[in-house]
Automatic annotation (TrEMBL):
GO terms for cellular component: cytoplasm. This is ComE operon protein 2. Residues 5-137 form the CMP/dCMP-type deaminase domain. GO terms for biological process: pyrimidine nucleotide metabolic process. The lineage of its organism: Bacteria, Bacillati, Bacillota, Bacilli, Bacillales. Keywords: Hydrolase, Metal-binding, Zinc. It comes from the Bacteria. Belongs to the cytidine and deoxycytidylate deaminase family. Zn(2+) binds at H70, C98, C101. The keyword Nucleus does not apply. The active site is at E72 (proton donor). InterPro entries: APOBEC/CMP_deaminase_Zn-bd, CMP_dCMP_dom, Competence_ComEB, Cytidine_deaminase-like, dCMP_deaminase, dCMP_deaminase-rel, Deoxycytidylate_deaminase_dom. Its cofactor is Zn(2+). It comes from Staphylococcus arlettae. The gene is tadA_1. GO terms for molecular function: dCMP deaminase activity; zinc ion binding.
């Protein structure tokens, strides 16, 4: 029996987290992994205790929802809150991170970014990743492939 690859497993985890998103604009999930262990995860959502965009509608300013904390930030902040080092870790995200998240990911010492879908891939984000020598690679997510594993077990 074939085993699911780590890369596909962690990307599937991010896809599942995206299903928890509370902002209607984009469902994003992020999983931070070190030595093949999940150290943190996050999805697009409000500050804890705040209303959800899916219930109240987004809070838009200058074309952005200002209520939402991005999935990548939520995952990084989980590391901060729990006192877990993100240095040298890998982040699996459902979408190419926005510029602010890219800067935070780099600053948090993450060295590899795997993303499933392109999303406004910002030229300055790419420039920074290149400059800092951060590995970033697109790993398209194949739902059917993962479903096969689940159905065959
Ligand atoms: Zn929103
Ligand atoms: Zn972002």
């Amino acid at each position: 029996m074939e085993r699911i690859k780590w890369e596909e497993y962690f990307m599937a985890q991010s896809q599942l987290l995206a299903l928890r998103s509370t902002c209607e604009r984009l469902s994003v999930g992020a999983t931070i992994v070190k030595d093949n262990r999940i150290i943190a995860g996050g999805y697009n959502g409000s500050v804890a205790g705040e209303v959800h965009c899916i219930d109240e509608g987004c809070l838009i300013e200058d074309g952005h929802c200002i209520r939402t904390i991005h999935a990548e930030m939520n995952a990084l902040l989980q590391c901060a809150k729990q006192g877990v080092s993100s240095a040298g870790a890998t982040i699996y995200v459902t979408h190419f991170p926005c510029l602010n998240c890219t800067k935070s990911i780099i600053q948090a010492g993450i060295t590899t970014i795997y993303y499933a879908e392109d999303y406004h891939n910002h030229h300055y984000a790419i420039q920074l990743l290149e400059q800092e020598g951060i590995e970033y690679k697109k790993i398209p997510f194949n739902q059917q492939h993962v479903a096969q594993y689940l159905l065959n077990n």
